Amino acid sequence: MMSPIVFPRGQCNLMEPGNITRISEFLLLGFSEGPELQPLVFGLFLSMYLITVFGNLLILLAVSSDSRLHTPMYFFLANLSFVDICFTSTAVPKMLWNIQTQSKVITYEDCITQVNFFIIFSGLDICLLAIMAYDRFVAICHPLQYTVIMSPRLCALLVLVSWITSVLHSLLQTSMVLRLSFCTGLEIPHFSCELNQMIQLACSDTFLNNLVMYFAAILVGGGPFIGILYSYSKILSSIRGISSAQGKYKAFSTCASHLSVVSLFYCTGLGVYLSSAATQGSHSSATASVMYTVVTPMLNPFIYSLRNKDIKGALKRFSAMAVRKGPIVLRLKNFPGLQASKS
Questions:
Q1: Which one has a higher pLDDT value, 264 or 272?
Q2: How many CA atoms does the CB half-sphere of 279 hold within 13 Å?
């Protein structure tokens, strides 16, 4: 990948062709410039990353191993868990590596790659949350037609369309970034590369980039959000029509976990862009980005497992099955002759 042209700040349009150089790296400033706090930051982020990966892997194992969970709702939940693992992995491993090596450098190619995957997986998160809201809408408002409407073919098609939309959106945004020229002040006040931060660093005209970025944010982020609001407006109308209090509670409880995740995702995502627009380069913007990139994917497994009897039951059955298999393996290891006869 060709590195972009870099100009000394303030001289973007005044440089002679012979004085033009090309950048090869950015500096990720992260949270703290003091080395004494870096081990604390490293331990905190490593713990959150491991919890995120382990928690979402448990959801994937529970859904895949238990036939009771082979339903549309848990199919989408498994996809969301996979996307959350990938979403967090776009930034945190690189940040941990930089802290461990006491380096803040990220190459231009790696920065573009981070932006690319960040857009893909954040877009997938948004689409999957909207699909899950539609799934709850069909389950509560049209329960007798649920299995017909939410067929395996439609579920797979919805996920496929989400992937295609997110990848195309990412290709559009990254191709727009590749045309930018950058000034010499290439410090990113975050722990990872993000689209709006790279556009702010550009020395060339960014009007078209900002136009495309905000238009895509309204379309890709606002469209699914409107779908979520519509689905839940219909769900609330149906719940109000239920006569018994127990029936209302049961219907609402199936949506509580999803509502919590949607609120957390959109509130932290909105906080990222509001804080970066209001106070460029501040720690509040980086903190909001952490909430969006790390904390939300980490909390999702807890929200879905703690409030969901099916998931808790599947995890108990999975752990019991693993415990039963463990002693068998140990007993076979204690009898080498038996292992030889089996081979």
A1: 264
A2: 11
Kindly provide the b/e burial profile for residues 188-227, where b requires at least 16 CB atoms within 10 angstroms of the residue's own CB. Answer: bbbbbbbbbbbbbbbbbebeebeebbeebeeebbeebbeb
CB-based burial label for 333 (10 Å; 0-12, 13-18, 19+)? exposed
Phi/psi for 204 (5° steps) reads -85, 180
The average pLDDT across 197-211 equals 86
Helix axes 72-89, 152-178, angle to 10 degrees: 20
DSSP lists the bridge partners of residue 202 as 182
Supply the pTM of this predicted model: 0.82
- Please report which helix (H) or strand (E) contains residue 43, including its range: helix 38-65
One-letter amino acid at 49 equals Y
Element (H, E) at 135: helix 108-141
Pinpoint the alpha helices (H) of 142-183.
146-149, 152-178
- Highest mean pLDDT pick, 4-13, 35-44, 47-56, 316-325: 47-56
- CA neighbor of 38 nearest in space, from 99, 122, 127: 99
Span 229-252, average pLDDT: 85
Is the pLDDT assigned to residue 38 strictly greater than 60? yes
